[in-house]
Amino acid sequence: VSPGQAINLVRLDEDVPGRVLATARWGLVPAWSKDPAAGPKPINARSETVTVKPYFRAAARRRRALVPAGGYYEWQAGPGRAKTPFYLHPEPEGLITLAGLYEWWGLTPGEPLLCTATIITRPATDSLGAIHDRMPLVVPAERWDDWLDPSIDAPGEVKRLIAALPDPALVADPNLPGGPQGLAGPARRADPAQPGALW
After folding, report:
1. Is 51 helix (H, G, I), strand (E, B) or coil?
2. pTM
C-alpha cells in the first residue's frame, strides 16, 4: 500500500457503540481544509507534536484509530544515494496494529464525506534505529481499548497514552519480493485468524 491509496483502519462507530473496520485514504486532510486536493496530505504525524500541531490535534483527541498491517517498509541509507529496503514485521508473521488518526472532510451537504488518515511515528528503538531514525507507533492488543477510548481526550492524557506504549519486537528482512511499499497489507502478508478479535 502506497501513500494516497486506501488503507484499512479500525475505529469506533460514531453512531452505534462498537468497533468497525473501515477504509480511508492514506494522507490526512484536516476538516478545516477548503480543498482536499490542495496543501500537504501528511501520511505520518510525529508523536512528539501530534497533540499541538493544528493538522493533527483535533484527531489526536477525538478520532484515533488502529491500522492493521502485516508489517512496513523502510529504506536504509547507504553509500552515495544507495538505499536498501527492509521489511519490518513481527516474528512469527502476524498482524501489528499501528496508531492512526483519521479525519472527515466535506463541504457540500448531502455529498459523501471523504475519510483520510495518517499514521503516528516515534523515534526508532536502538535495534531499528540503524535502519531509520523513525518508526510507526505500534499499539499492542492490551492497549487497543485505551487507544480508541473517546473519553481520553485531554492533550496531556493523550501524550501520556502515547508515552506508555511499549517498544514492539520486530524483525527486519532485506529485499523481500513484492516490495518495497509503504505498508504491507494483512491480506498479503498474514491472514487475520480471528476477525472478531480486532473489530
Report:
1. coil
2. 0.85
% residues pLDDT > 90 (the chain): 51
Kindly calculate the radius of gyration of the chain based on its CA atoms and give it in whole angstroms: 17
- What lies within 8 Å, CB to CB, of 111 at 6+ separation is none
> What is the Cα–Cα distance from 59 to 51, expressed in whole angstroms?
9
Query: Distance from first CA to last CA of the chain, Å, rounded?
Result: 21
Q: What is the dihedral of CA 198, 196, 12, 191, to 10 degrees?
A: 50
Q: Strands, DSSP E only, in 90-195?
A: 96-105, 114-123, 134-136, 171-174, 183-184
The DSSP symbol for 143 reads G
Query: Which residue, chain included where needed, has cell 481544509?
Result: 33
CB atoms within 10 A of CB 123: 12
Average pLDDT value over all residues in the chain: 85
Q: Which pLDDT tens digit goes with each residue over 1-18? A: 888 999 999 999 877 789
* CB of 182 closer than 8 Å to CB of 26: yes
- From 134, 116, 121, 199, select the one nearest 165 (Cα to Cα): 121
| Per-residue pLDDT tens over the stretch 160-180 | 999 999 988 888 888 664 554
